[in-house]
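for the writeup, i need someone to sanity check this before i put it in the appendix. the sequnce is what the collaborator sent (i think, or maybe the updated version? ugh). structure was predicted straight from it, no edits. if anything looks off just tell me and ill rerun, i have time this weekend
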Amino acid sequence: MQLTQITHHDLDGYGAATVVAAYADPGRIVHVPRYGDVGPIVDDELKRLGRTRKPEMLLLTDLGLEEPTIAFLRRFAAMNRRREPAEFHRLIVLDHHASSVEQLRRQRLEPADSPDRARPMRFDLGDPHITVLVDEGRSATRMASEHRALFATREADPDRVADLGTLIEAVDALDLWLKDRPSFASGLALDEVFWDNVASFVPVGHPAHDPFVSRLLLDASRLIRQGATPAALERAVPALREGIVDELMRDAPDDDPSLTARTRLARALARSDDLFHALSDGTLLSFALDPGTFQRVSDLVMSGGRASRLINVQRTGTLSFRSNDGTALSGARLFRGGGHHDAAGGRLPSGSAFSLADAVQQIEPVLNPPPPRADDSPFAALRNWKG
């Protein structure tokens, strides 16, 4: 059964993804930085699952259950009722926010068991294929580990079990803000490692993104387990990262180890089909790339002849245009923007975007409007008659 995980874009969300990947093989992992984007993202996922006859598993971790997400839970149950038993999808929700319990109760969903913070609250959607657990006393990373029987297809690598344990303890202390725990300082250090590396090396959307981040978190956890102080860990991270990049670039035809890690990776990213969507005029569109990554990768894409114009869309709605034929500015002007002929910026009409598909739907009709439809009604000739 294919597994899709949707998780928060923070240390706990990635910690949960790291745990899940240790016990299963997710087909996709979707990271959500803003809770306001959860509703549209799960709605898109529901539409996709509704068209898929083969049963799949959807795992939500650390997202915070707001009203749109709770409505999605009910629609998921309704979708399953319309399907044949052999086609039932599975849904697992692991969350730990107090606000989630409040929202669930506001939507007339009460815990199936007596409320007890020492164990997860289980909410019943009337479908045995849906599991909703909320545990205010656990991080999502710890919940993923403790409830792995819900999704696991294998045992974790024995060489990584101890590192996973260190990661779970550190994330748990930090995310619950338990400053009296010895592991809290380790959690702070891992949080710095995470934010320093999550966006500007291998971007979200690339197949190597989650393996890169998870490997770095586990390697850092191993050093913590071996006694490294936060300062020692900070000094060691560049070497850890270099080892991971060496492995990722081992078979790359154009790798140059004398270059920086970001520049080495940019060469591979420029060849990727996963980061870009080709618009009808050949412009390549990317979503939420780090500005420095977009600058490096767009230059390599254009110099390689793959495209003459690229656009990067940020979640906040800002657009960055790059070109080598003077068309960046003309494109940006269509989006209330300006700048230079080959480097310009603008803004989305709606003000924000929640996914690459959403960005495409907003940009394509403005950048490449469809031709006007011919009026073939009986009155067209009368309207165009000049007497």
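The first strand starts at residue 2 and ends at 8. The chain has three domains: 1-156, 158-267, 276-367.
thx in advance!!
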